[in-house]
Amino acid sequence: MNDPFTTHLDGNALAGPLADVFSVDPTTAWRRCPSCHLPSSLGQLHVYGPGPGLTGRCPGCADIALRAVSQPGHLWLQLGTGGGAFRFHLPTSAP
Amino acid sequence: MSGSGFSPGFRGRTHAFEGRLPPGQYPTESFPVLSAGPTPHLSTDDWTFTVTDETGGSRSWTWDEMMALPQQEPTVDIHCVTRWSKFDTRWRGVSLDVLLDGVDTAADYVVAESYDGYTTNLPLQDVTDGKAWLAHSFDGFALSPEHGGPARLLIPHLYFWKSAKWVKGLRLTLDNEPGFWESAGYHDYGDPWREQRTWSD
């Protein structure tokens, strides 16, 4: 994908927002894509954003792996496509 | 701030846009690109636009058929939920009134569906009566892929995530079905003048 206008970020862009709700480093978490069967870590995902949210996609076929939306006081996290998003309440000390 | 340090030109411009900037927004001259995935590069030869009603009945237009419909050239202000607003953007396209004309439906909502899998939900009354377009040109040129070409929705009275890029059709629905961002924390309606950004606004 050589597109100068929508250059994706790598999966480590997810590390900051997800650190608020994971107790272990999520970037090394392993996933096998249900569409193309390519294995990858979360840190290897192609991430689009940052606005309106971060969309993490399989580096092989661009299938959606997760969406993360940061809002004041909250993180919304949706894994896959059809499972609905969880809204996590963040500590008030979070920026 | 007294404004005495500004040139008359700057002040004049500010006055011209007074009352046109929704709360929490800043004006921009550029046209930022926001995408949730790789940009699809679609040929107009393969392009169709389909309106599907709640019973499954549908009508489709090829590119040439769509271009043969009555065209309008709206000049509108647009507002992105990421806080930029852009004034006096010039578009060319087909009013959704034309594409929805004669559809017999009891639906109160539509879901806009795009070639890349993106979806967004809207009340039917917000895409009729001259408020929404299927736009294929921007500023006198064919709409580029990164801005949603060959054709995108243009619904300027709502935050711009509602103006789906690479749109392939409208699906009329009886219920309000949250779309791609609406299901992940963004507002179902998205009125920039009421700052309806997040689910709880």
From TrEMBL, chain A:
Pfam families: DUF6510. InterPro entries: DUF6510. This is DUF6510 family protein.
TrEMBL record, chain B:
The lineage of its organism: Bacteria, Bacillati, Actinomycetota, Actinomycetes, Kitasatosporales. Residues 37-181 form the Oxidoreductase molybdopterin-binding domain. Pfam families: Oxidored_molyb. This is Sulfite oxidase-like oxidoreductase. InterPro entries: OxRdtase_Mopterin-bd_dom, OxRdtase_Mopterin-bd_sf. Residues 1-11 have a biased composition (Low complexity). SUPFAM superfamilies: Oxidoreductase molybdopterin-binding domain (SSF56524). It comes from Streptomyces rochei (Streptomyces parvullus). Residues 1-22 are annotated as: Disordered.
